[in-house]
């Protein structure tokens, strides 16, 4: 069994702040908030409590009392792609947002305060992939990892890795570790010598309707069982369960079309 890692208690006990560039939260904005909560609650065992409402109705997902993700409601007139968005930690969201702009990216939301929890911005890299930036105050981010129902990894799917990796390296200070292969374009992004995210260049295999985008992997106890449950709940299988170097993986989508991966890590 994967070892659980708890960064904070359900009563908000102090814990270490995430190093800049580390994915520290994942969030999903949807049209049907209640139905989406029912879907993920049944799939992952999440419960929900209200969160900051700066961007509209928003709920934090809890697993065993620990906050693991967020789901918010899009305004009825906003027809944005429904997608899980990773938030990358920053010590100064305003400075990071300005660096994003200087490096060819855009900032679509913020920077703005999320009540007393922290300060955020939502931007996109030069290829158009959307990500969040989080400067922690009272709330540091995901408080439990390493068990089923928690985020396990975040990966950028893009046309090619080299140029966009330079963007993230400049903005967030990552160290890069390319995978040397004639037919596999992949770069791991490291913080303090530890891999925290990946960039996968897939060329023409990128879905035409989505363009470059980040995708979140969620830990499950059994990928095949989780896929069956997901389909029963109204989700869709985009790539059937397959074995990889990091575990058994399936690429799926929720009823509103948000793509994500399920991963059963090696025991």
Automatic annotation (TrEMBL):
Organism equals: Streptomyces guryensis
Q: Name one Pfam family in it.
A: Glyoxalase_6
> What is this protein's name?
VOC family protein
Q: Where is each VOC domain found?
A: 22-136, 150-265
Superkingdom of the source species:
Bacteria
Q: Which Gene3D superfamilies match?
A: 2,3-Dihydroxybiphenyl 1,2-Dioxygenase, domain 1
**PANTHER family for the chain:** CONSERVED PROTEIN, GLYOXALASE-RELATED
Query: Per its UniProt record, what PROSITE patterns does this chain match?
Result: VOC (PS51819)
